[in-house]
Amino acid sequence: MHTPIRIHVEHAIAALCPRLAVRTVESLVANGPTPSALWDEIANLSAQLRQSFTVETLKQRSGIAATRRAYKACGKDPSRYRPSCEQLARRVLQGKELYSINTLVDLGNLLSLSSGYSVGVLDADKISGRELTLGIGRVDEPYEAIGRGPLNIEGMPVYRDALGAVATPTSDSVRTQIDEHTKHVLIIINGYDGDGENLDNAVRMAKRLVEEYGGG
After folding, report:
1. Which residues are CB-contacts of 206 (< 8 A; sequence separation ≥ 6)?
2. How far is CA 9 from the centre of its chain?
3. What is the mean pLDDT of residues 141-147?
4. Does domain 6-213 fall into CATH 3.50.40.10?
5. Residue 45: how many other CB atoms lie within 10 Å
6. Exposure of 111 in the CB half-sphere (CA atoms within 13 A)
7. In the predicted model, is pLDDT for residue 1 greater than 80?
8. 81: pLDDT confidence band, cut at 50, 70 and 90?
9. Is the dihedral of CA 102, 105, 110, 111 positive or negative?
10. How is the chain split into domains, by residue range?
C-alpha cells in the first residue's frame, strides 16, 4: 500500500464553510460488475428514502442543506449545479431507475444515499502526488466531468492534485475515473454539516462495503 493520500483544506473554503469535515477511506480493491446483494442494498435504501422524504423536503436533509449552503458561500448556484448527493436522491424520489455502473461506483452511490453527503470515488493510482487540496474553482479552470463533459467549476468546491482539478461535489473528473481495472480506490466523504456521528457511520459503512463487495 502506498503512503495514504492526505487532504489539505485551503483557508478560503475553510473560512466560508466552518463546519466542513472530510473523511476518506483508501483501499486496495478488486473492481467488477455490481453484485446482486449490493444492488439489493441500494433498492432497500431507496425504498426507505421514499418513505422519509419528498423532492421538496429533501433539501432539508442536513448533509444536502449544508452542501447547498457551501455552494452559495463559494459563489455557485446549487440548483443549477446540483451536488451529487442531491442529484442521486432526487432521482430515487422521482421513481427513476439508478444505473448500475460497477461495484466501486455503485457502493459510492449507496454511501451517498445513506449519509446524505456527496461522495467522491476516485482511482487513487490516477491521482498525481500523495495530497489533494480542497479549494474553490477558478475562472475558466479546465474540468472534464464524468458523464457531463466540460463543467464550469468556477465558484465550486474542488479537489486538486499536482496536475489540477480531480473532484467536485457535483461530479468526479474523467481523469481519475473508476474503471474495471481500478485496483486502488480513494473514497472522499464531504461532510459540510460537520455531523461527527453521521460521518463516523459513513466511514464504517464505507469500510464494510469495500471489504464485503470490493475485496478491500
Report:
1. 25, 107, 111, 187, 189
2. 16
3. 96
4. yes
5. 15
6. 31
7. no
8. very high
9. positive
10. 6-213
Give the pLDDT band of residue 84 (cuts 50, 70, 90): very high
Q: Which residues pair with 22 in a beta bridge?
A: 190
Helices (H), 7-141: 11-16, 36-52, 62-74, 84-93, 103-115
Residue reference for cell 486502488: 184
Q: Which residue has cell 472522499? A: 188
C-alpha cell at 166: 480531480
Are 26 and 188 a contacting pair, CB within 8 Å? no
Residues in the chain: 216
Rounded to the nearest 10 degrees, the angle between the axes of helix 84-93 and helix 103-115 is 90
Q: At what angle do helices 196-213 and 103-115 cross, to 10 degrees?
A: 160
Residue 128 CA: distances (Å) to CA of 28, 29, 40, 160: 17, 19, 35, 9
Task: Identify the CA nearest to 22 among candidates 4, 2, 8, 11.
Answer: 8
Cell triple for 120: 467522491
Determine contact, residues 170/82, Cβ cutoff 8 Å: yes
Q: What are 158's three cell numbers?
A: 474542488
Q: Please, what is the end-to-end C-alpha distance for the chain in angstroms?
A: 12
| Cut 0.90: pTM above it | yes
Interval 47-55 mean pLDDT: 96
> What cell does 175 get?
481523469
